[in-house]
Every structure is written in structure tokens, then in C-alpha cells.
Amino acid sequence: MKVRDQPGSFSPVAALWPLTQVMAGALHVARLHGDDELVAPLFALLDGYRPRRSDGYLPFPGRPPLYYDDNAWVGLVQVQAAFLASARGDRAAADGFGAAALRTFHVVAAGQRPDGAVRWRDRPDSPVNTCATAPLVQLALRLAAHDEPGERRDRLVAVAAAADGALARLLRRDDALYADHVEPDGRVDPAVWAYNQGTPAGADVSWWRLTGDESRLERAAATATASLRLFAGERLWVHPPVFVAVWFRNLLTLHAVRPVPGLLDALDGYLDRVWREARHPGSGAFGGGGLGRYGDGGVIDHAGLTQLYALRAWDPRWWPEIC
């Protein structure tokens, strides 16, 4: 089994980041239909991206450097797979996925600078990015929430707290949105991408679940409101669907505990328009109508849309389970 980046016999094998989003989509569909037939084969593909004697994953098989954000996405789908297996009563599988997620957590945590921010890739000149730092917080807290009190749990929370502090100091803007990254010389790229608003909000919800701190929900709600205002209409439409998926799925975890005005209307409007204007009537593939794309499009865009259609069909009581 291989995941190809583009349709056609000459398409290359997908990079790790698109693969993780296909895995996330498969887990969302499995939760919806109770059929996890595709989950194990997809996770088995990860072995091809991991060098020998290493717990980290490369962006393509045998092609360094390691990207810490890629590995954070791997860890989050491993946690999600553990939750799904546990819900099915498969303790052995849940323990296996949980142990794998913990190993991946250590890989991503190794990319932290002393100030808590996480480097984008394993190079000395790497910037520190929201897309690596916020998912590390999420991964650490999701693991801590299901761990027994003790030294390991304390370590998970400490790593999350350091990364969270860096997000607030370095990457959170005055308008409650999050900048893209900070260069090694301290220059901030203020660009706002939807997925970088979703992961910090989702992390704040996880903090609230762990500590009961209501200020975390207030901060998440401020980011949700600001980002919904920014990503309205055409600005959302031309955004890469995978970024939109990460954004919406994290805001749904907030909505499950503190309703976000306008969120479901925005999601329904987006999905209705995708189906109406971006879907090819013959092949069923998405990409028309001026819909945004990540790079050249392909598997990653379809994985993001698969997640969103599955999540909208979920029972809302399941939304807190989303990573």
C-alpha cells in the first residue's frame, strides 16, 4: 500500500505531512462508520519514513532533515488512534498507539529551544513556528490527560507549559491571532494561517480540561472569534483545505464546551460551497471553482475535506475527542 501525492501512475509517494492528514481522515471516518480497516495499513506506512535506530520520521523516506511539525502531526494521529482503539475495547492496540505517541512526543520535544519554542526542522538555522510549537502542547497534554500522576506526567505538563509560554511571548499577536514563525535573528513573520489559529485554541481547551482554568477557554474563544472574522468569504475559500480542516476541527473542540457563535454556519457554508462549486461531477475529485490548494493540491487537500465532511456527520458529543 502506498499513498500517492497526485492521481495518475507517475505520481510520487506522498510526503509525511500529507500522509498524516490521510491518517487523520481515516480515523475520522472510522469513528463515524465503525470500520477501521484502513487504519492499520496506513499506520504501517510510517515505518518507511523512519530511519533505522530512530523514533523520528523524515519528510520522505531516506531524505533528511527531520521536521518537528511533521512529527507532531504523527504524534497527534497516534494519540487519536489510541483513543479510537480504547473506545472499541482493544486495549492492546490502544497501548501500542499510546506508546508510539509517547516516543514521538520525545522526538518533537527534542526540537524545543531553551525558551520553549519548537524549531520547524532539525537544523541550527531553523525558525521557530506556531505549526510546531502549538501541536507539541496539544500532544503533551493529550498524553498527560490519560497518564497516571507521577514523574512522566509532570514532564509532559512541564514541556507543554514551556511551549505554551513561548507561543504567548513570541507568536501571539495583539489581535488574539498567531503569527507564522520567528526567524533565528528574532524577526517575526506575522502571516496568519488558519491552522495556526486552530492548534493554539485546541491546546487551550486541553489546558482547561486538565486544570479547570477558565481563562484558557477565554483565550481560545478570543482566537476563535478573531479568526472567524478574518477567514470569512473568499479569504477562507482560497485557503488550503487542509489548513481549513485543522482550524475547524480544533474550533469544534472548543464549541463542544463553549459554543462559538457562527462556527457551524461557517463550516456548513464552506462545505456546501465545496460540494457545489469545487467537486468534479464525473470523478468526484475536489479542486475546481477557485478553491484553494496546498502546493499543487492532491492528496492533502482531499484528506482535509474528508476530515471535515466526516466531522460534520459525527455526533456532536464526539467533538471533544478530536486532536
Provide a short characterization of the protein structure.
With 323 residues, this protein is an all-alpha fold. 57% of the residues lie in helices and 2% in strands.
General description of the model:
It is a single chain. By secondary structure, this protein is mostly helical. The protein is 57% helix and 2% strand. It has twelve helices and three strands. The protein has helices spanning 16-33, 39-44, 68-87, 91-109, 130-144, 151-171, 195-211, 214-230, 234-237, 241-255, 263-278, 299-313, and strands at 128-129, 181-182, 188-189. The chain has a three-stranded antiparallel sheet with strand order 1-2-3. A hairpin with a 5-residue loop joins β2 (181-182) and β3 (188-189). α3 runs parallel beside α5, α4 packs across α5 and α5 (130-144) packs parallel to α7 (195-211). It is globular and about 55 Å long. The protein starts with 15 loop residues before the first helix and ends in a 10-residue tail after the last helix.
Shape: globular
**What string gives the helices and strands in order?**
HHHHEHHEEHHHHHH
Question: What integer is the average pLDDT?
Answer: 94
Going by helix content, strand content and strand pairing, the class is mainly alpha
Number of helices: 12
Instruction: Sketch the major β-sheet.
Output: 3 strands, antiparallel
DSSP E strands, number: 3
Beta-strand content estimate = under 5%
